Structure formats: structure tokens, C-alpha cells
Amino acid sequence: MSQTIRLPEILEIARRDGKVTVEQLADHLGVTLQTIRRDLSELAEAGKLERVHGGAVLPSGTINIAYEERRQLNAEGKTAMARACAAMIPEDCAIFLNLGTSTEAVATELLHHRNLLVVTNNMNVANILTRNPDCEVIVTGGSLRQSDGGLIGDITTAAIRKFKFDIGIIGCSAIDQDGDILDFDLREVGVSQTILHQSRRAMLIADQTKFKRTAPARIGSLSDIDVLFTDAPLTRGLQDRCADWATQIDVSPADLPRREGSAG
């Protein structure tokens, strides 16, 4: 079967099922796993699919990708960014870690930090940090979003306003080329805005896939961020905007060696 026939059929299956796997497609189309991997890479480069471990998913538009798919998406890049972020977090400080698989990766990199106070509305972050005996964890209240273990809503924002954080670390669903930071859930947007307001230093962790997506709700601008952690260079236009805003850009490719940080 030629590629001109395979690619439309792969997209049709992805639209029907929401995702495709390499093995499933190879069996269905009667071609090798290597051929399917090339097909998926080509569709990803065209923006029609997003690669995840073992396959691909539909790109996000107005509907967010399922949590488990997001966890697999660009996992190596998220780990590299998380290491860079953790290296900038000193010991003996108070931080907030927001929702998202990237902030969960940061929590994993903080397991050897000492004397941290971590406030979070992310049940997954809290569970990760229970393995660090030198970390005090406070979980905000709020409405539990069962799809990803996130706590959101008015109760959450009220709890956050009781603190002043040395560092607030947030994720997002998308970043526009004008520098706007975007998300899908208005309740989550309100939480992120409150975190930024209550933090002396604001950090955003967003891998390269976030610059290829869109989402309907605006959190703020990269001008509100002190440090942006990502895994691929920004466009020249966005780099220039960040320079004007004094927003530091930290690019950590997935193959970057582990950095020596100030802690652990």
C-alpha cells in the first residue's frame, strides 16, 4: 500500500479512535513498524498528529489531550526541562507547583532538595513529594478534577491567597506567537493567575508542543513570567518579545546532560 493511501487512512483511524498505535497500524495496513513510524513522523511534522510513546494522538485544538496521553507526550523533553527548573530552585524556600505533567516532572527532580515548603493543587505532585522527608507538602482544597488529580475552583484560589511564595511554577496548554499563555479550563486559569500574583518569582515550564497548539482561555503573557523553561528554541519574533519583557528563556533539549544545581 502506497503512502498516499496510508496517510489518509491513518488520519481517519485517529479521528475515529482519538489515537493510533504503531503495532495496530502496521497490522491493519500490512506494513512494517518502521514504515508506520515514518508515516507518523511525517504526519506530526505536518501538524496533523502528535507523537506519543508507541503511537500518536490527535493534536489539541479546543479539546485537551487525555491525561495519560499528555504524560507520555515528549516525556524526554519534559524531564530535561524539569531538571533545569529544579536546578534553579534553592533549598529552604517556599514554592507552588501547579497542575500538569511537566510540573509533576519538576516534583520528581525535587526529591533530594532539603527544607522545602511545597504548596500544590496537584494530587500527583503531592504523592511524588511524599518520598522526600525534607519537604513539607500542603495541598489546597478545591473541586477534584478526576481526569488528572487537579484541584480547582474558588476554594483553591482562596487557599492560595493565604501564602506568599518565593517561586511559583505553572504549566499551560498552549502559547501563542504573541506570547499569550493559554489553557482550556477557566477554573484552572483563575488558579494560575492567583499563583502568579502570589509569587515573588514566576516560572513557566512548557515544552515545544505547547507552541504548536491553541486553547481558548488566557492565563496571561510571557511578560508576566521571570523564567520560561522549554526544550526547543523559540521563534525569533517570540525571542525578541521575551528580551523586551526581560523574560529569561532556558532551553533544555531532551539530550542535555544533567545539570549541577544548587541542591541535592
UniProtKB/TrEMBL annotation:
The keyword Repressor applies. It comes from the Bacteria. InterPro entries: Carb_Metab_HTH_regulators, DeoR-like_C, DeoR_HTH, HTH_CRP, NagB/RpiA_transferase-like, WH-like_DNA-bd_sf, WH_DNA-bd_sf. SMART domains: DeoRC, HTH_CRP, HTH_DEOR. It holds the Pfam family DeoRC. One of its GO terms (molecular function) is DNA-binding transcription factor activity. PROSITE patterns: HTH_DEOR_2 (PS51000). Keywords: Plasmid, Repressor, Transcription, Transcription regulation. Gene3D superfamilies: Winged helix-like DNA-binding domain superfamily/Winged helix DNA-binding domain. This is Glycerol-3-phosphate regulon repressor. It comes from Pseudooceanicola algae.
